[in-house]
Specification:
Layout lengths: L5 H19 L4 E6 L14 E6 L3 H22 L10 E5 L2 H23 L3 E2 L5 H11 L5 E6 L6 E6 L17
Parallel strand pairs: 2-3
Antiparallel strand pairs: 1-2, 4-6, 5-6
Helix pairs in contact: 3-4
């Protein structure tokens, strides 16, 4: 279901967070912004609702590569009944974690591209969320001598980077598949 009333959705998220923070004993504050300004030069960042956390327990949200932060975000998506790639409509962040993670993924993509060029062998990234896979695809889309594909199922889905002329087993020539 698309977010038709963003203010009401933000209120629902706020009620959820208030309950989790108070019942969980967290020392956190949060700010919810509806239609935040778009980040410069980052076309993949355009959430309709942004939730930013701060406070003494911020570190807990960021442990294990932001697992708790992502869990809060997933639960909020479920509360709003967001489907498919509508999860892009809400973002939770803490201590600029998202920007740092995007930079890590872009750097990993550049390093992998050089390795694939040097070895002429495919490179498989570790499992990633759909959001992170999209960032890798976008980071590599201008590399005309390479192609990216997502492979795997569920939580084990990852990006594979191929030399442009690489032929995969069982297929004489694969079409380039990149996000729009």
């Amino acid at each position: 279901m698309p977010i038709t009333d963003k203010v009401a959705a933000a209120k629902q998220i706020g009620e959820f967070l208030q309950a989790v923070i108070s019942n969980g004993g967290f020392k956190l504050k949060y700010r919810i912004t509806v239609d935040p300004p778009m980040a410069e030069n980052r076309e993949w960042e355009h959430p309709e609702i942004l939730v930013e956390f701060a406070g003494p327990d911020s570190g807990l949200l960021l442990e294990r590569a932001g697992e708790l932060l992502r869990s809060f975000e997933l639960l909020a998506s479920e509360i709003l009944r967001l489907q498919g790639n509508e999860h892009e409509k809400i973002w939770f962040d803490c201590k600029n974690f998202r920007a740092q993670r995007i930079e890590e993924l872009q750097t990993a993509a550049r390093v992998a591209a050089e390795q694939v060029r040097r070895t002429s062998e495919p490179y498989r990234f570790g499992p990633m969320s759909s959001r992170e896979r999209r960032i890798v695809h976008l980071a590599l889309r201008e590399e005309k001598d390479l192609r990216t594909e997502s492979d795997g199922e569920g939580g084990r889905r990852s990006v594979v980077l191929y030399p442009g002329s690489y032929k995969t087993a069982g297929s004489p020539a694969r079409r380039e598949r990149r996000p729009n």
